[in-house]
Design goal:
The chain is an alpha+beta fold and 245 residues long. The chain is 35% helix and 15% strand. Helix 1 packs across helix 6.
């Protein structure tokens, strides 16, 4: 079955509602007092955060179980990271017509496992085919040393150690920008991930404070991908091919 056909099947089963409420209320002029609460009602807009994949302790456990199953190391520092790059256990993430990388991401961190790169390219191509726009990658591989530093100023970051440690430390995981997407675009990505998670190929979360799709990709994705009737996207350029256009 083609990926496109699977999307249509699952898309028919899934309907997500996310929106806003506006309250039209009255106001009056209150006495000017320091820090006084005004008995005033304003127009307020509330954006409902109602993701399909809520972050959870159980999700972090599943991500780490996959890392342990594959007996992958949690990359401790830049020396270990460079060794994995040299051995091609980690591959560079390729940008192009369908995928861009947040320019703030250190070029030394723009790497991931081969099957994770396949996933990112497949999703970004499907997204481009649907919306004629790019997906942005915000984060990929990290080191334990870097994760500890990150946690000092980002309370949303997962631990650097233990059974709920960040799966970025093994290079299986990427964060894809969610902020700025329309409802239709968010639902498209959610349906895509829903199907793959049902097959046990990804473990996704939608982070609230960072507004990204955090996606750990199982090594099983590589063999599953070979069995699929995937649309040929060879005409869409990557890397240097794009810059020559």
């Amino acid at each position: 079955m083609s990926i496109g056909r699977c999307f249509r099947l699952w898309g028919a089963l899934l309907t997500l509602a996310a929106g806003s409420q506006a309250f039209a209320l009255h106001s009056y002029t209150a006495p000017k007092r320091p820090n006084a609460r005004k008995n005033t009602k304003h127009h307020r807009r509330f954006i409902r955060w109602n993701p399909m994949f809520r972050p959870s302790h159980d999700s972090l456990l599943r991500q780490n179980e996959e890392i342990d199953r594959l007996e992958l190391p949690r990359i401790q520092d830049d020396d270990e990271l460079e060794a994995l790059k040299t051995s091609q256990a980690l591959l560079p993430i390729r940008t192009g017509a369908t995928l861009r990388i947040d320019p703030r991401l250190d070029p030394n961190r723009r790497y991931c496992r081969p099957w994770t790169r396949d996933f990112v390219e497949d999703l970004s191509q499907a997204y481009y085919h649907q919306f004629h726009d790019q997906i942005q990658l915000n984060s990929a591989v990290r080191t334990v040393k870097g994760q500890k530093k990150l946690r000092r100023h980002n309370r949303n970051a997962a631990p650097a150690e233990g059974d709920t440690a960040s799966s970025h430390l093994a290079g299986l995981t990427v964060d894809l920008q969610r902020r700025g997407m329309t409802k239709e675009e968010i639902h498209f990505v959610e349906r895509y991930l829903f199907y793959l998670r049902a097959l046990g190929l990804v473990e996704p979360e939608e982070e609230r404070r960072q507004w990204v799709f955090h996606v750990m990709v199982s090594e099983r994705y590589a063999s599953w991908r070979q069995t699929q009737d995937v649309i040929n996207w060879d005409s869409i350029p990557f890397g240097e091919e794009l810059s020559q256009k």
